[in-house]
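Query structure, 134 tokens:
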């Protein structure tokens, strides 16, 4: 199992909850580690798919993930491109709290630029993709 962390993983028991989606649709990253258990997930499901309210992190599945392009995660590059096309105010960012920063797949690939777009991403409830909104 990879030590590298996916920052947009499906909601499941044992996943790290890295932040909550606010009313503005932006993710507020948590400063302390929270691990999802069955009670957390059951409470989150009251509002719908947990991924619509929270972002979860699990070990990067690499070639077992549909986002893997053979060498890296293809998702973060597409998200950056979509947000730039939409005119989103992307600024490289390493200032905000994040509990997976040292091992985050997107940060390892794109550095501060990944952290600058991260809060715009809400994971698709299917666990196969992510949505980005400007
Ligand atoms: S992209 Fe940056 S802010 Fe987002 S999960 Fe990875 S390290 Fe944390």
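Result returned for the query:
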């Amino acid at each position: 199992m990879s030590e590298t962390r996916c920052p947009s993983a499906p909601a499941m028991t044992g996943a790290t909850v890295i932040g909550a989606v606010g009313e503005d649709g932006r993710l507020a990253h948590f400063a302390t580690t929270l691990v999802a258990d069955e009670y957390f997930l059951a409470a989150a499901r009251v509002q719908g798919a947990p991924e619509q309210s929270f972002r979860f992190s699990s070990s990067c599945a690499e070639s077992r993930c549909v986002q893997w392009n053979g060498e890296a995660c293809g998702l973060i590059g597409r998200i950056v491109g979509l947000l730039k096309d939409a005119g989103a105010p992307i600024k490289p960012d390493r200032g905000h709290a994040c509990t997976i920063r040292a091992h985050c797949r997107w940060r390892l690939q794109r550095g501060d630029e990944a952290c600058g777009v991260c809060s715009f991403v809400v994971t698709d409830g299917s666990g196969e993709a992510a949505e980005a909104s400007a």
